[in-house]
Specification:
The structure holds 2 protein chains of 2 kinds. By secondary structure, chain A is of the alpha+beta class. Chain A has 4 domains: about 230 residues, no CATH class; about 130 residues, Gyrase A, domain 2, CATH 3.30.1360; about 100 residues, no CATH class; about 50 residues. Chain A has 19 helices and 24 strands. Chain A is elongated, with a radius of gyration of 33 Å. The chains are: A alpha+beta, B alpha/beta.
Chain lengths: ~600, ~425
């Protein structure tokens, strides 16, 4: 389906926290120190309270924080101003900026972005634009990058209910690169491909790996609709499904607004009544519970609305769901509407009695909601319906596990940002600018082409986080990525699994160098690693000397093979190699032996 | 690019004016925020501000929006008649509002600001806001303490059942301590509070501090000058601390105020309850205001190699009294003859030297060491038990305001006037 979308990618950097010197560490267990805070709307502002901030604030929740001694300090619990910005993070931000061909700003201003859901202990997120006007290439498409920002990650939500939200503070403050694209005319399939390609691109940098280390928001609209921001994609590979669902939802809402928009005129006369008395003797558990808990049941009559609430928007979601989702966030309760009755143990007769009580005609519908006393539920319901009948409401929506979306909060505007007064304008020093300039025009394709890497090798090196090390080793030693990856990644992994030992970078390089100099065979690397890991040799050279690992020349090898073939009449390659290994150990490469043997056997 | 081409245009710009400018070879649009020494701050449509060096920008077009930016919503609450609680405001973080456009901090706020900060405080009676000054507490003068004391007295005379004083936290323990001498006895609680975190933050401690202080002012039956700030890092309850036995002990934390050589008097909770923790002075029938302060008092800290010159200097300047935060039990490096000489001069001039301990906790003692016995020969040297240095400093001003006779000064300094000296050193009063 044709869509217009824009991405906001958030990538965690593999550095210390942005404004303190804590090393991030994720924790499954409960916090060692727990804190309780009350979050208030951003009062004290002169009129310009951001709608989304005010919306969250109006909920006035109690927030609990789980803090950890190893990954949190006073900065994380907002008891100390930020320290200096993490230099490495700033450098990586500049690398991204260069790779994305952006105009880099070398005087950085951190802003406070108001967030009062408690996910930032301060009540805001610190964020600074480091680059503007860049581009990202996807096949032949030039995707405009409107900004590249450096910001601090929020805390992880651990638990949420009506009264309380709790967060773990281990993630708070991890540096994030935020890359925002311009509007892309595309479809859901290509949008997913672009997101995947960007994901691969980020891994050329020193970023964190694993679940949740890249997060993305998608701004989405279709022809005739309005911008909706989607958050919380769990699985990029299913992004197309969520996008398609949302696009279809918008399509339905546009159609409904067009066909049924006139119904808004009837809403001025909406009849609002408390209906507990009508349902006094209901056997519905839902109603019985509501009455026993002394809740109010507010019902509203909507003239001419019959059938609208039951209209399908997307699979399994109806117009009524749109109202319900909104109300649940806004007031903590959903709605039940006449189009879905009888249901929930409420009988047809009871439904009829409500209709009668409200004075509904045959073309009318009603909605009711069970809620705490004193809440102005009707206002919320009427406002939501009116918005839905006007056009697609511009809002932030959460992507659910089934790839459907639901209302989260209103969209935030630019008013939610103001200058961070605890930090000066940061002048990026020339050393960072210079170091990061090497990344100009950097991309997955550029790297592949420049260094002769195949997709498979690139993937392997990126996964092992050894890309640059491997490129450098290959430039110096010219062994080819096959050998380099074999030693640097595979052999090293083998030792890690077998002996639980970590081979040092220096040892790896010395082994590769010895191979390049024909000092040892390629096949000897694991043996050398093993000897060093077991403490039997202190260095590569010592392992070679002490354990006879010096590579023999091809002539000697040929003489040995010739002897085995001619005297011992060996004609199978595998027994031949086994015999050679018994006699010569790892002083030769099996590959060479095969070549010689096949030549001899063919000639023989 | 023309150098300094911004100049003619910028002078006329005001915050929020749309501008078009060239920077790094690109034409861009934004809103002018402000001019700094070497940058212009410009807000992009994304909401982010960027800093553009003046010598790199060329303004192409600047549009005067013509909209005068005036304070919106400058709501003044109608002053309550016969208020139950008066909130005397003096400035500080709790009364500072950020300008969301320029990042500047403005020190004046309309009165409805406080009600927005803690709407629930209305549940505790009729409240009047009484702004008397707008200063950061590091700039507060002893004369300002007198202004505060007078405003409190006016409020009490007007029928207030409790008074809250908001101020910056840096010198709150000086001011709260001063109040215990300037307003003695007290017929209502005088509750000092402030904020450690600015009010633009969702996490600000200002709201809870203000609300809990109003609760304390309305419900606590003590007649003391107290500090009501966070007891720990949670927004749960505040301590009620005796103003002259408390101290700011952390630069930044919201639980910065701790009781010194005492326990909290009470704890006040968000649900309106007050828990008594230790003995306090009950409300008196009447409040007495005594504004005599001799501000010619200085404060010194002793340290290895300090020398006596600084004491001699103050003496030569005609100081009326000195407080020295000495080491340990109240020791001074007497082997240094210059110090010994300075003490002799002070003695000759009848200038009181009040000794407290920079150890912060515990009492001074003039008999444990020979140094101290040596010192106690000087009758102008006055040990003040477990009184904090800041309280001794303020109290000395108060005492010298009434007498300069050394024996009387000594007698007053060493007697307990407002709970500032404890006669029992309780086991569990260390590091609360």
């Amino acid at each position: 389906m044709k869509i217009r979308c824009g991405f906001e990618w958030h990538v965690q950097l593999n550095t210390g926290k942005l404004f303190c010197r804590c090393r991030p560490k994720m924790h499954d267990e409960d916090g060692e120190i727990k804190l309780k805070r009350l979050f208030k709307p951003s009062f004290g502002e002169s009129g310009r309270v951001d709608e989304s901030a005010a919306f969250e604030g109006s909920k006035a929740k109690e927030i609990l924080y789980d803090t950890y001694k190893d990954s949190d300090c006073l900065v994380d619990i907002d008891e100390e101003p930020p320290h200096e910005v993490d230099r490495e993070a700033l450098e990586i931000a500049f690398e991204f900026g260069n790779a994305l061909k952006a105009t880099l700003l070398d005087n950085i201003i951190f802003m406070r972005k108001t967030i009062v859901d408690g996910s930032n202990t301060s009540g805001f997120q610190r964020t600074a634009t480091v680059g503007i006007d860049g581009e990202f290439r996807f096949k032949d498409k030039k995707i405009e990058i409107s900004s590249i920002s450096l910001e601090e990650d929020s805390a992880r939500k651990a638990e949420e209910n009506q009264q309380l939200t709790s967060y773990k503070l281990d993630r708070l403050g991890i540096p994030l690169i935020e890359v925002a694209t311009g509007i892309i005319e595309t479809d859901e399939e290509e949008a997913k491909e672009i997101a995947l390609a960007f994901g691969r691109f980020t891994r050329l940098f020193n970023v964190r790996r694993g679940l949740g280390t890249i997060r993305q928001d998608v701004n989405l609209s279709i022809e005739g609709g309005r911008r909706v921001e989607l958050k919380g994609f769990q699985n990029i590979r299913e992004m197309d499904k969520a996008i398609l669902n949302e696009a279809k939802r918008q399509e339905s809402l546009i159609r409904i607004a067009k066909d049924k928009g006139y119904l808004k005129d009837n809403m001025g006369a909406a009849v609002v009544k408390e209906i507990s008395s009508v349902l006094q003797n209901s056997s519905s558990n839902l109603i019985k519970k509501a009455i026993s808990q002394n809740k109010e049941i507010t019902a509203i009559k909507f003239e001419g609305f019959k059938g609208l609430f039951g209209t399908n928007i997307t699979e399994g979601k109806r117009f009524g769901t749109e109202v319900s989702d909104y109300l649940r966030i806004k007031a903590g309760s959903g709605i039940i509407h006449s189009d879905e009755l009888p249901n929930y143990g409420i009988t047809q007769a009871e439904s009829d009695r409500i209709s009668e009580f409200l004075g509904c005609g045959k073309n009318d519908a009603f909605v009711f909601s069970i809620h705490d006393k004193g809440q102005h539920i009707a206002e919320h319901i009427i406002r939501r319906i009116s918005d839905l009948l006007t056009l697609v409401p511009s809002e932030v929506r959460l992507v659910k596990d089934d790839n459907s979306t639901s209302f989260l909060r209103p969209l935030g505007g630019k008013d939610r940002m103001y200058i961070e007064t605890d930090l000066p304008v940061i002048k990026v020093d020339s050393e960072i600018v210079k170091k990061a300039s090497k990344y100009k025009g950097f991309s997955v394709d550029a790297i592949k082409e420049k260094y002769g890497l195949t997709d498979e090798y690139l993937e392997q090196l990126i996964n092992a986080n050894r890309l640059y090390e491997a490129i450098e080793a290959n430039q110096k030693l010219k062994l080819g990525f096959n050998v380099i990856i074999g030693v640097m990644v595979e052999d090293r992994n083998y030792i890690r699994h077998k002996l639980g030992a970590e081979i040092k970078d220096e040892t790896v390089y010395n082994v590769l160098k010895s191979i390049a100099l024909d000092r040892i065979s390629r096949d000897a690397s694991r043996r050398v690693f093993e000897l060093i890991a077991l403490g039997k040799a202190g260095s590569v050279e010592e392992a070679v000397q002490k354990f006879g690992l010096k590579k023999i020349d091809l002539k000697t090898l040929e003489a040995e093979i010739r002897r085995l073939v001619e005297k011992d009449k060996l004609s199978r390659y595998d027994t031949l190699i086994t015999n050679l290994r018994d006699r010569l150990g790892f002083s030769f490469d099996a590959k060479d032996a095969y070549e010689i043997a096949s030549r001899l056997l063919k000639n023989g | 690019m023309e150098k300094n081409s911004f100049k003619p245009a910028v002078g006329k710009l005001s915050t929020g004016d749309p501008i078009e400018f060239a920077f790094k070879g690109k034409n861009m649009h934004g809103e002018f925020v402000k001019e700094e020494e070497s940058f212009l701050l410009i807000k992009l449509s994304s909401g982010y501000d960027i800093a553009v060096p003046k010598n790199e920008i060329k303004i192409i077009k600047a549009i005067k929006s013509g909209i005068a930016r005036k304070e919106k919503n400058a709501g003044e609450e109608k002053p309550e008649k016969n208020p139950d609680i008066v909130i005397v405001t003096t400035g500080g973080t709790i009364s500072s509002k950020i300008d969301y456009e320029t990042g500047g901090v403005s020190p004046t706020v309309p009165s409805d600001y406080y009600f927005n900060l803690a709407p629930k405080m209305r549940d505790y009676g009729k409240i009047a806001i009484k702004p008397i000054m707008s200063v950061l507490s590091e700039n507060m003068q002893p004369s300002d303490w007198i202004k505060i004391a007078s405003a409190v007295k006016d409020a009490i005379d007007g029928g207030a059942k409790g008074v809250v004083v908001t101020m910056g936290t840096d010198t709150m323990h000086y001011a709260a301590s001063a109040m215990s001498f300037l307003l003695n006895p007290l017929s209502v609680p005088v509750v000092f509070t402030g904020a450690q975190r600015s009010v633009d933050r969702g996490s600000s401690d200002a709201s809870t501090n203000l609300l809990l202080s109003v609760i304390a002012a309305s419900k606590w039956d003590g007649g003391e000058s107290v500090i009501c700030m966070h007891s720990d890092l949670n927004d749960n309850h505040n301590f009620i601390l005796r103003g002259n036995k408390a101290r700011k002990m952390h630069t930044e934390r919201r639980d910065t105020f701790r009781p010194i050589n005492s326990k909290p008097l009470g704890e006040v909770y968000l649900d309106g309850t007050i828990k008594t923790v230790s003995d306090y002075i009950r409300k008196a029938d009447k409040t007495k205001l005594d504004t005599k302060l001799d501000t010619n008092v200085k404060l010194l800290i002793s340290y290895p190699s300090m020398g006596g010159d600084i004491i001699e200097y103050y003496l030569s300047k005609g100081v009326h009294g000195l407080v020295i935060a000495a080491t340990g039990f109240g020791n001074l490096p007497l082997e240094d003859k210059t110090i010994y000489k300075a003490l002799l001069s002070a003695n000759k001039k009848n200038i009181p030297l009040v000794i407290t301990s920079q150890a912060l906790y515990g009492s001074t003692n003039s008999f444990v060491y020979s140094t101290l016995r040596e010192m106690s020969k000087f009758d102008n040297i006055i040990y003040v038990g477990d009184m904090t240095t800041e309280t001794a400093f303020v109290k000395l001003m108060h005492v010298l305001g009434h007498t300069r006779q050394i024996d009387k000064v000594k007698q007053m300094m060493q007697s307990n006037m407002a709970g500032e000296i404890s006669d029992r050193s309780q086991i569990d009063t260390f590091l609360i």
